[in-house]
Write a structure and sequence with these properties.
The protein is an all-alpha fold. It folds into 2 domains: 165 residues; 85 residues. The protein contains 9 helices and no strands. The longest helix has 37 residues. The protein starts with 5 loop residues before the first helix and ends with a helix.
Length: 277
């Protein structure tokens, strides 16, 4: 798969559109908050980090955070008070989010990297915004509040993006789009041979009476070992889904077998149910 395939870009664009809508609302709300309660303005800054973190945690591919953040800024620019400046700000936010993963050469997507990304981004944002808000005019407590909100808000919202990515992953969004990083050695997901053996062991043919339909589900095999832990999880879920389909088919065949036997014996189904009861 190409690094930025059409499907990957469409996924980034979908996240960016949702993020752009949130940015537009926050631009007006945050602007009013900055005028009324400037010390609390930093609490809204973290919202700008959610789309990039969500894309990184969901897709786990290089540059998706930068691309998604830039798209979100571009979508919201016509509706922002600063217009095209929103795109430039989001471009900088995406670059800050990508930097820790770039330094690790995109070899790991574990939560400490996201924590470093959010914390480092928050520190940069607090330094830049401190002067914009005139932080030197406040007392020590006011300065602490400004720095704390600008540092903690991106960190918290980064993990909100990670949490949203986990929820989307459970729903099947982004399946097959992740990069082929090696799966952890301690992963408990079954391998290709284990899944194939389990499926083969559960594959049976139900024998029915003459005239009854035989229900069978064709066996499923996996030609290649899972490239990532996510792929192994997908195959485990696929095997479980297959087993459920197989059991349903066996129950259907058993019901048809009993119905055919009743017809051959001249017994209605209601009478057979009464005898069983």
């Amino acid at each position: 798969m190409n690094k930025l395939s059409t499907r990957l870009l469409m996924t980034c664009a979908a996240i960016a559109v949702a993020g752009g809508a949130v940015f537009t609302l926050n631009a007006w709300f945050g602007g009013a908050l900055a005028n009324l309660f400037p010390l609390l303005y930093g609490a809204t800054i973290g919202l700008y980090f959610i789309p990039g973190a969500l894309a990184q945690a969901l897709l786990r591919r290089p540059a998706v955070g930068l691309v998604t953040s830039a798209m979100a800024g571009l979508v919201s620019s016509p509706f922002q008070p600063i217009f095209f400046g929103a795109f430039l700000i989001m471009l900088a936010v995406g670059a800050l989010q990508e930097l820790p993963f770039l330094i690790s050469r995109y070899r790991t997507w574990r939560w400490p990297i996201f924590a470093i990304s959010g914390l480092a981004s928050g520190l940069v944002m607090s330094f830049a915004s401190f002067r914009v808000l005139g932080g030197e005019q406040y007392d020590l407590l006011g300065k602490i509040v400004i720095v704390a909100t600008f540092v903690l808000s991106p960190l918290v919202c980064t993990f909100v993006g990670v949490w949203l990515a986990k929820a989307l992953e459970r729903a099947g969004v982004g399946r097959g789009l992740r990069s082929a990083t090696p799966a952890p050695a301690a992963a408990t997901a079954p391998t290709s041979s284990a899944v194939t053996a389990a499926v083969s062991a559960t594959t049976t043919t139900t024998t029915s009476a003459p005239g009854a339909r035989t229900a069978a589900v064709p066996p499923r095999t996996f030609d290649h070992p899972p490239a990532t832990a996510g792929d192994a999880e997908d195959r485990r879920l696929d095997a479980e889904r297959y087993e459920r389909e197989l059991r349903a088919a066996e129950r259907e065949a058993a019901a048809e077998h009993d119905a055919a036997a009743d017809r051959g014996a001249g017994r209605p189904a209601e009478r057979r149910d009464d005898e069983r009861g």
